[in-house]
Amino acid sequence: MPVTVAVVEDQSLLRDLLADRLRSIPGVTLSGVYENGAAAVRGCLATSPDLILLDLFLPDLNGRLVLERIRRELPSTRFLIISALFQPADIIDLHRIGANGFLSKRSSLAQLKTALAEVVRGALYFCPHTADLFQEGMRSRRSDPATAGLSHRECEVLQLVAEGHTTKDIADRLHLSPRTVETHRMRTMKKLGVHTAVQMVARAIELRLIIDPVQQISDH
User: Fold this and answer.
1) Counting Cβ atoms within 10 Å, is residue 95 exposed (0-12), middle (13-18) or buried (19+)?
2) Rounded-to-integer distance, Cα 184 and Cα 21, Å
3) Strand 51-55 to strand 101-104: parallel, antiparallel, or no bridges (unpaired)?
4) 156 three-state secondary structure
5) Do 36 and 87 share a domain, yes or no?
6) Is 86 exposed, middle or buried (0-12, 13-18, 19+ CB in 10 A)?
7) What's the mean pLDDT in 141-145?
8) Residue 199 sits in which domain range?
9) Among 84, 106, 112, 82, which Cα is nearest to 94's?
10) pTM
């Protein structure tokens, strides 16, 4: 199946290598090659690639911010995050906001091809290295007394509620039914001992279960 791919990588040698490798894969068309986040946002919003191969660490905007800005306008575009220095918390956070795959820069061409195929067909992809880090991050969340009572999915819903998304938005983003989203919301309020969505978000921020959306905006 034909697929258009954009590459966002600040290191020129690796950027050129990735572009060459992608050109060698049948069915893949490069829609753009970018060396920084700002150029990537402009270019990708203009060309609407099917998939973006996105470096996590860029000289201007970090990969997380690039993902957020593009996904807001292109919700169907998929993101394969690449890095040499993944941390468990990075993977958990990027997965929560919509990254579709994670690939170490130490990965082989065969792994790159597999990652592209899996992400394009709608699967969530982890290379062996990032799969281990994801599991480590999940274990850390479960062992934290502040998060022990909430499931990963409940935390996802909670973060999106805090960001102002409607039940329908959350259901669409997480591929759930609106009723399931409401069930997660009610269970979370019960676990946190609160009675309203406002109290739930305030309590979650206090316990650092989620990222404060106001702080996110001020940081950017």
Assistant:
1) buried
2) 43
3) unpaired
4) helix
5) yes
6) buried
7) 53
8) 152-213
9) 82
10) 0.65
